[in-house]
Write a structure and sequence with these properties.
This protein is of the alpha+beta class. It contains 11 helices and 13 strands. It folds into 2 domains: about 10-145, no CATH class; about 250-485, Phosphatase 2c, domain 1 (4-Layer Sandwich), CATH 3.60.40.10.
Amino acid sequence: MNTYKKPLFIHWFYYVSAIVSYGVAFILLSLHYYQQHLEMSVGVYVLLIYCVVYPHIAFGIQYFKIGFNEWHERICMVLDVGLSGIFGNFIALFSAPALLFFMLTMTNIMLGHGLRIFLLGLGFAIFNLCISVFLMGLHTFDTVSFELNAVSGFLTLGYPVYLAYIINFRTNALKQSKANLRTQKNEIEAQKDEIEIQRNSMQELNEELNQLNEELATTVETVSLQKDKIEKQNDDITQSINYAKRIQEAVMPPAEIIDGLIPHNFILYKPRNIVSGDFYFVAERGQNLFVAVIDCTGHGIPGAFMSLLANDLLSDVIISRNITEVDEILNALNQGIREILRQQETKNRDGMDIALLRIDQNTHEVTFAGAKNAVVYITPEGLFQVKGCNRHIGGEQRVEKNFVKHTLPIQELSQTAFYLFSDGYQDQFGGEKRKKFMIKNLRKKLLEIQEFSFEVQGEILDKTLEDWKVRGKEAQTDDILMMGFRLS
């Protein structure tokens, strides 16, 4: 087994080259004594036996017993090169065979453990050579000149040094490459661990996402069912409101009756939410013509309920109870609303604003009474406005006050245009600055359109309002009702 990190082929090369080296030494030593007809001493036989058995013993001990231990192997190699000094003298110093043996031994050392161990063994070999020469004398039997053998010796020593340099350079490159591969392997393993962690995290996130998708699907299904239910309820409510709209329109005087009583007129009626809290009233009682625009508290369904209640009460006061004075009509309306809604007991605050005209068709006298709302009339002399009282019909009233009747100083009734309206038109937000339209702009607009028929006036006022909303990107804020007319 290999106990330190060196390629296995190095150890096998050492084993084979040691066999070759000591085999060459065995042959050369035997030939030397055979050619010289020398008597071999016990020491020579020991050396011959050593050449045969040593490589196998050294390799066997390392491979089978202690493994390829680095320090034991270095000791063996130093011993090899050290003994080569003795063999060199026995074989004959600087002879060609001796140099071959020495080259093989040095190459083996260089391949095994590099330059440092080579130099150590070389020093040991020179030391052993000196001892051998001192004890045995100098052995020579080659006729080749000393100089040629010396050059051959230096070349032989240079060969393993060059080979060691190449091997060492390649080994360092392999070590660096191996270190780089180890670093890359560590980085890859770290990345693999990180990817594994991310994969686990992604798996957990996927599980959570799947759970959320299931919950979302359930929620979407629930919402879809609720949406269908709400849409059905909304359709039912819308149908009910549309039906209520038809009822509300049926309660108000039809266009045929209005056109019969007032041939020149327009009605700009724009509920905010299908049904409206605003309504108009036109009725004839004897020679008196009553025209009113009423703005009930709220809009939509609550306002529509109030409008139906107010319409019935106004009809009762004028037609059934035959109250004809405009101020008394408003007083009666106020008292009736408070009694019907039991406002003294329930603290209910609902009520209405109203602009009411009475026109005596015989005397052409025009009287007006208003609660918050005003009347605007235009004669050849100009535009005039009469304001109503600064109080509501119904609602909380700390001090009971009667409404005021105004008699309008009109000379030519047929040349006078009347305009009654709720506060929805002038309070509508819009325009570039997103402000209210304001009553002053409405009065200005009414003056500008006097040359047109009342039908065209209604269309102009409607378009003006829509443009005002569009420029300010505003929705309708309240119910809108305006009525304009002139008596022939």
